[in-house]
């Protein structure tokens, strides 16, 4: 199985990750990995940092002649905004951040807490997800995402196809499929910027081509939908996750919720609809995976909320430092990456082998089995 850890702080010199469990023989396209990092830095409403950095990673091990070797992959990223030793201590914790509890629990200043709690850490998660995406390609699995809600603006289009999402988000500044909605979302962000306020939003991640039978009903920790949900919620500021029709499933009857089963000689078993977003009993059904998530608004406000000075204990306004106004587009890209990792992990668990070729053989044999 796959495993990885990230290490690094927002303004420290380097960030590193080690990813273990990738089979050998997977071609690695560094431009593709760095392109995913670029996508993470985009989006209307980001702060000044994104203009300062152009994220690029190096693979320092587990990689030879443009292919994985089956040994742990070292991932190294240099922060051009390296200044952690010069950054001021913060005494007024910001509501919505790890500041207060992190400082109390670890008995240290807020600076050390926020440097690690920062979403800068997701740069490495996107790099790991980009490596996972390169494995998934060999099994015909693709991932995309789009933002559908921000403030009071909602793209209310049902049954948007995977290909449509890919095509219609290409030139979007907010990873949105609808130019009219995007214009309104941008106006909201501009207004929030003027008001010293911030926004979050909602988005969808889609996975196409995933075989049926990944994950298992057998234990709570082998349920793949549960693993994906945990991975999404672990992304900074994500507060809600659902599958398929998601919260709508609480309002409609069973007859309109469940996906009727059909059979075809060529396709094998398939479904008339995909209301459950590609999962039953923690296992993939072979339909598209549809994950929905909500990100809360950015916590650092230029017009700060009330806080308490941790030295004087006086009531004061929370601290402010350079910050995004809205990072919903980036968040959708990050969640693509964490979903890619979870799918790759489940794929390796099911078809695992030491090499890509061995995995492909196992995969093909299982596809033949479930068609019968
Ligand atoms: C892509 C991305 C960028 C973010 N940028 C900021 C930011 O500039 N300022 C900020 O206050 N929070 C930002 N956040 C959110 C915080 O990192 C997050 O709210 C904080 O670490 C507390 O974690 P929690 O919200 O999961 O409880 C960002 C989150 C994401 C996903």
Outline of this structure?
Helices cover 33% and strands 22% of the residues. By secondary structure, it is α+β, with helices and mostly antiparallel strands.
Any overview of this molecule?
With about 375 residues, the chain is an alpha+beta fold. The chain has one domain: 4-Layer Sandwich (Chorismate synthase, AroC fold). Helix content is about 35%, strand content about 20%. It contains 10 helices and 18 strands. A 5-stranded antiparallel β-sheet has the order 9-8-10-16-11. Strand 14 and strand 15 form a beta hairpin. Helix 1 crosses helix 5. The radius of gyration is 22 Å and the shape is globular. The model has no long low-confidence stretch (mean pLDDT about 95). The site of flavin mononucleotide has 21 residues, from helix 9.
């Amino acid at each position: 199985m796959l495993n990885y850890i990230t290490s690094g702080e927002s303004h420290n010199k380097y960030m590193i990750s080690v990813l273990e469990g990738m089979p050998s023989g997977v071609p690695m396209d560094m431009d593709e990995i760095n392109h995913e990092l670029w996508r993470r830095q985009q989006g209307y409403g980001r702060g000044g940092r994104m203009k300062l950095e152009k994220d690029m990673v190096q693979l320092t091990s587990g990689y030879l002649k443009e292919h994985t070797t089956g040994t742990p992959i070292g991932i190294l990223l240099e922060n051009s905004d390296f200044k952690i030793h010069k950054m001021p201590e913060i005494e007024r914790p910001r509501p919505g951040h790890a500041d207060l509890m992190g400082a109390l629990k670890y008995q240290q200043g807020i600076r050390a807490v926020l440097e690690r709690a920062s979403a800068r850490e997701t740069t490495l998660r996107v790099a790991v997800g980009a490596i996972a995406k390169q494995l998934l390609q060999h099994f015909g699995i693709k991932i995309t995402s789009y933002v559908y809600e921000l403030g009071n603006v909602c793209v209310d289009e049902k049954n948007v196809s995977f290909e449509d999402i890919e095509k219609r988000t290409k030139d979007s500044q907010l990873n949105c499929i609808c130019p009219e909605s995007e214009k309104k979302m941008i106006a909201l962000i501009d207004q929030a910027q003027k008001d010293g306020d911030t926004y979050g939003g909602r988005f969808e991640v889609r996975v196409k081509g995933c075989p049926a039978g990944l994950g298992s009903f057998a234990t709570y920790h082998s349920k793949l939908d549960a693993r994906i949900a945990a991975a999404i919620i672990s992304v900074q500021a994500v507060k809600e996750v659902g599958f398929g029709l998601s919260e709508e499933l609480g309002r409609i009857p069973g007859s309109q919720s469940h996906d009727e089963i059909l059979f075809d000689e060529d396709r094998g078993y398939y479904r008339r609809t995909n209301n459950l977003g590609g999962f039953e009993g923690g296992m993939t059904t072979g339909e598209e995976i549809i994950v929905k998530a909500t990100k809360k608004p950015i916590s650092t406000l230029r017009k700060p909320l009330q806080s308490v000075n941790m030295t004087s204990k006086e009531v004061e306004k929370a601290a402010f430092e350079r910050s995004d106004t809205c990072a919903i587009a980036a968040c959708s890209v990050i969640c693509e990456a964490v979903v890619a990792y979870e799918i790759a992990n489940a794929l390796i668990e099911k078809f695992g082998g030491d090499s890509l070729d061995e995995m492909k053989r196992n995969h093909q044999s299982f596809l033949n089995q479930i068609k019968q």
